[in-house]
Predict the structure.
Amino acid sequence: MSGPGATILGFGARHRVGAAALFLAVFPWLMPYEALAVNILVLGLYAVGFNLLFGYTGLLSFGHSAFLGAGAYGCGIALVHFQIPWFGAIVIGVALATAIAVVMGYLAIRTRGIYFAMVTLALSQCVYYAFYQAVGLTGGENGLRGINLSEIGVLTLKVDFLNPTVKYYLILAFVVFALWLLSRILASPFGAVLEAIRENESRARACGYNVERTKLLAFVLSGAFCGLAGTLSALHLSIVPIETLHYTTSGQAVMMALLGGMGTFFGPFVGAAAYLLLGDVFTVLTSHWQLVLGIVFVSFVLFFPKGIWGSLLVWAGRR
Amino acid sequence: MSGLTIDLLLLQIVTGVALGSVYVLLAIGLSLIFGMLTVVNFAHGAFYMVGAYCGVFFYGLTGNFWVSLILVPLGVGTIGLAVERFLVRPLYGRNIDDPLLLTFGLSYIFIETIRILFGLNGIPFSTPPVLSGTVDIGIGFFPLYRLFLIGAMGFLVIALWLFIEKTKFGLIVRAGARDPEIVRVLGVDVSRVWLAIFGLGTGIAGLSGILAAPLQAVTPEMGIPALAEAFVVTVVGGMGSLVGSIVAGLLVGIVVSLTSLVAPEMAKVSIFALMALVLLVRPQGLFGRAGLMG
Amino acid sequence: MTDVILATEGVSKQFGKFIALNNISVAFERGKLAAIIGPNGAGKSTYFNILSGAYPPTGGRLLYRGRDVTGLPQHRFAHIGIAKSFQITNIFPKLSAFENVRVAVQARHRRYDLWTARESLTEVNDRARELLTMVGLDRMDDRAAEDAAHGEQRALEIAMALASEPDLLLLDEPTAGMSPEETQVMMRLIVKLSETRTVILVEHKMKLVMGICERIVVLHHGELLADGTPAEVRSNTDVKRVYLGQEKS
């Protein structure tokens, strides 16, 4: 297929991070309200981190809420209980998420492939109970409150985090940075190994790749990206609800990835936007939006497994 | 830990066996479905929950617990048949994760539908009068209903064993579990076998739901921790192994029960520690076959 | 003194109660094109899997260049110089033919590189193109490899096996499912490859290998039936009895 559509997509594919940054820079003006734009950024990063493992490596994890939550709680606890400045708190949040990913990944990858989803679900449930019980640090059932950033120092400037526009662009900076890292990883030799493992694990092994070690590294990277999303979420919402660690949050990642398009660079973002917009529309109409979500998801599994963005790419002749 | 006698310990172990009985039934259903269809049923917890609510419904309707015990697995199993026939079957031959994803989405539909029909808050399910009260089992007084649970589990396990070992259909199950190709080669209509097994597995899940109902609050979310627990039991026992489901289910029940005696705040987390231990030492599960389903 | 590249000493393999291989001792010489043949069910695939590291034997030892490699993990075999192709075509289905080989070439040195853009690795990319040309696939486009013809996929497998610069190439029924023309092309390729490295084939079509191989190993019901040059094997009475009716002159 030729024509302006293909040309634009081609350009976008080669300079995907720049294209994403550009689009996301003007994004707030497309959204009905700014908090939604920030939510899409944060959840989009969460979905993108998840997609590294699911769409590119082919490992379906149902435990990614542990990383979003660890990042959020790590960052929040550092700020609230230890008065660590915001940037250090982000680093701590990501470090905590990464550490949990190392342990979880090591245990989960030991199992046969089909157990993977089950083990990750079970282990993240364990993390949920652990954080729930540590009421002193996490606030337990009520969540962690008081993550109030107002005036913060960014490099040498002082900015007002409470200003929605400032908040959006600061979070955007982190997200674009993460997308840039991700893009490099996917374009590297390591990225090719991930896709090879997804396509045919035994073949990859015969080529000489240590599949288990590679999977673990992918798992940890995925956890780190999701942890970063968690820290940003904590700063944005000023609280960390306990539901962040719940199994439904893991399910959220799965849904966004499928709705958007697994194994594509932009897909998860599209999925996050679709998920949040759909939610916004339907919670106005009914209190039973989960039913709509379930039906939509099941329909996608049956009829649109490539997701919105993935199907679009196929239609435009690029996959 | 004053007052910890042998009797108390033994009582706690029996409690663990009662608790484990529900786990055993859940895991057996999951294992059957996986063993034959290679599908990880992420809606298994939801079927369990639906079973509990169907129990509420039928018990309320008939006032007879025994009749409800028969109607619930039939009802839930029928839902399972419909799910396999119309939702899961189109996915065979596609990506191996697709049925898993589908059943995951299905659980959202089930949970929300139950919320619509029965409300957001839990419904109490009182122990049927004929099974309430306690019994002296020599080491102390023990709730009759929990003894009934253990008995029911034993009965079902034996019935299932007879079915699999002694009937023609059971032969197909055994052959298919080892190698689905063999079943096809034998000229058996594999799709009907899969349909039946999915119905059987979900029916057992529903039955566990009504059996478990008097022990806990019947809420729309009760299936979520149950799913995690069923997964732990399956990983510990070994996927596709019925013996594994039984041993692991009872083991997990006893671990939870003993932990809540000694360190109650660790009780919920203890099963994951057990699972982690098994993963480190024997990743295929206690009775799983190494090299199954790479 | 002959130079032995790969040897099995008393290798047996049991699956549960079923004995697939019993006490197989063979020493394969460097540089000699060898074939492992036998009727279906003889244990050829099991033997191949042990030689190529897919799983360890239940008993006995596997020796590569005199070094005991019994039980070495599968992914290490490529690093010590042994490469294999699979009986059932085992490629990366949705990747292009070029990417299939490129990934295989990359495995030598760039397994954990998270940073360099793969397009800029000219050495790897050029070598991949070389290998594709060597097996006659230089004109393959960017289509998914699973869409290629069967013969092309088998050739791709060989190109991928060559990517690790192996001293020893193990091929499991390389002509399986091929037309007579494709088979001829493949056999010519195998002979050419055996000029620069040791190649060991598994085949069940005896006629194919008799003409080109220097060493034949015959398996039957998991036992070693015969082991020698084609002439020795052809005149072996046990072999004649087993292949009666199947052998064509």
